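Notes from hallway chat w/ T.B., transcribed later so I don't forget. T.B. wanted the structure written out for a chain they're using in a teaching module, and asked if we could keep both sequence and structure tokens in one place. Agreed to drop them here.
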Amino acid sequence: MKLDCFYPIFDSVAWMERLLPLGVRLVQLRIKERPVQHVRREIAAARSLCARAGAWLVVNDHWECALSEGCDFVHLGQTDLDSADVIALRKARVRIGISTHSHAELEHALAFDPDYVALGPIYPTTLKRMPWAPQGLERVQEWKRLVGNRPLVAIGGLTVERLAGVFAAGADCAAVVSDVTCHPDPEARTREWLAATHPRLP
């Protein structure tokens, strides 16, 4: 499986309405601490938007809502793996991406035969407090050797300016949050990301 190299992560459908028309083809919806009814509505709207835009939607954490709304890709954290019904997801042919931050977590993730593995944070990030030190590019190289043919998603502190080093180290895909959503001009920054990653598109 090949992933688009540019993988923005948004916390609302409103972001998708703004930025999908620019050419984004892979996007994650990550909603935290909101009522299930709100999450379900956002997932349904995001699925419809992505279908019209020809983009791949990945739903973070809320695998039950994703399954009921007919989505075909979820992203699970390590704690989610213990509660998620992976058998049901696989039976519905839902693809699964998994976060990793350590060798133990990578071993745990690979036991589920994920469709992609994410490694982070690559660089310091202000998005949320992390118990892990920045992984750095050497760890990206190591993870690429360990994950086999699966796509490796790099996340954490990524910017357009850091892309070349991340891809050279072996990452297949760059996930980004604040470099787009906290930018003074998110549309312009998205265009910069698309221009920087376009040569790597299939």
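Follow-up for T.B.: The longest strand covers residues 95-100. Might be a good example for the class.
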